[in-house]
From TrEMBL:
CC cofactor: Mg(2+)
Name by which UniProt lists this protein: ATP-dependent 6-phosphofructokinase
Domain named Phosphofructokinase: residues: 3-274
Family of the protein in this entry: Belongs to the phosphofructokinase type A (PFKA) family. ATP-dependent PFK group I subfamily. Prokaryotic clade 'B1' sub-subfamily.
Keyword Cytoplasm: yes
Pfam families the record matches: PFK
NCBIfam families in the cross-refs: PFKA_ATP, PRK03202.1
Binding site for ATP: G11, R72, C73, G102, D103, G104, S105
GO molecular function terms noted in the UniProt entry: 6-phosphofructokinase activity; AMP binding; ATP binding; fructose-6-phosphate binding; identical protein binding; metal ion binding; monosaccharide binding
Regulation: Allosterically activated by ADP and other diphosphonucleosides, and allosterically inhibited by phosphoenolpyruvate.
Subcellular location field: Cytoplasm
């Protein structure tokens, strides 16, 4: 192995830079040249490939976003696009490719495995990739939501209102669940578990009778639109509802300690996997350790939604 390529793809996530830095520095440490590919598969297909030095990744370890930029690239889903990508890698004599991204990005990587060694590093705030307990960015996003909800609660308390806060997660309710339990949300709505408007309204009324003057309802984007849910709750309960969609602020910011550490460990592990001559692998965080697994683990059965924690959240917010 003489040359490794690395790219970030799909949605950005805090900690991607820490992973990138680890790939670059660990690679150089082992005498390998590391090439950064800009803008995901889009940049790969168009040959946006540059050698990265030790200094090129200085001062990025705790910075959010991705220095390499990221993109979505429909062309990569075509045979021609994949061939162009492989041609570029071969032209630059790159022997192995590290892809930092979500499961879509991993599928793209798999199409290149016929011509090059590949390793995936799970990077997405949604924590929706099978085979790993955590994805890079999730912990930071949860902390960002907790911080934002804390601020919203101040206003909710002052105005005695019910706030419906929509958080990210695609079809996965993990961000909503973790943030909801951490900040004591009155209700948490997730795509994994059906919810009942009447139950939520009863809870709001019970709280009101007890003298509670505000409520926070966290809605995972996959559970439905906060606007629709807020309107329905207002109609049924008679309480004023205010809607906040946290949106992209959840994807930004400096990575938390946990994300930065996992990202670095995964970046290092990816280089070890390549040095061992392995391919079609992903790095995974399992039982507090970063390990190597077959990339197919990313498409296995998803870690079950933590119903116990969800139940507990309901019990704590009666
Ligand atoms: P994520 O990696 O966060 O899941 P996407 O699903 O948008 O994000 O995927 C990112 C990119 O990966 C896509 O824009 C496309 O270039 C590539 N990709 C996704 N699915 C496939 C696929 N089935 N085959 C080839 N490339 C894919």
């Amino acid at each position: 192995i003489e040359r490794i390529g690395v790219l970030t793809s799909g949605g950005d996530a805090p900690g991607m830079n820490a992973a990138l830095r680890a790939v670059v520095r660990k690679g150089i440490y082992h005498g390998i040249k590391v090439y950064g590919i800009s803008r995901g598969y889009e940049g790969l297909i168009h040959g946006e490939i540059q050698e990265l030095s030790l200094g090129s990744v200085a001062d990025i370890v705790l910075r959010g976003g991705t220095m390499l930029k990221t993109a979505r690239c429909p062309e990569m889903k075509t045979e021609e696009g994949q061939q162009k990508a492989l041609d570029q890698l071969h032209k630059h004599q790159i022997d192995a490719l590290v892809v930092i991204g979500g499961d879509g990005s991993f599928r793209g990587a798999q199409t290149l495995a016929r011509g090059i060694q590949i390793v995936g590093i799970p990077g997405t705030i949604d924590n929706d990739i099978s085979g790993t307990d955590l994805t890079i960015g999730f912990d930071t996003a949860v902390n960002t939501v907790i911080d934002a909800v804390g601020k919203i609660r101040d206003t909710a308390t002052s105005h005695e209102r019910t706030f419906v806060v929509e958080v990210m997660g695609r079809d996965c309710g993990n961000i909503a669940l973790q943030a909801g339990i951490a900040c004591g949300a009155e209700s948490i709505l997730v795509p994994e578990i059906p919810f009942d408007y009447d139950e939520i309204c009863d809870k709001l009324k019970r709280g009101h009778q007890r003298g509670k003057n505000h409520s926070i309802i966290i809605v995972s984007e996959g559970a439905g639109s906060a606007y629709k849910i807020g309107e329905e709750l207002r109609t049924r309960s008679g309480f004023e509802t205010r809607i906040t969609i946290l949106g992209h602020l959840q994807r930004g910011g400096n990575p938390s300690a946990l994300d930065a550490v996992i990202a670095a460990a995964m970046g290092g592990k990816a280089v070890e996997i390549i040095l061992a001559g392995e391919t079609n692998k992903m790095t995974a965080y399992v039982n507090q350790e970063v390990i190597s697994r077959p990339l197919d683990a990313a498409y296995g059965e998803r870690r079950p939604f933590n119903r116990n924690l969800y139940e507990l959240a309901n019990q704590l917010s009666i």
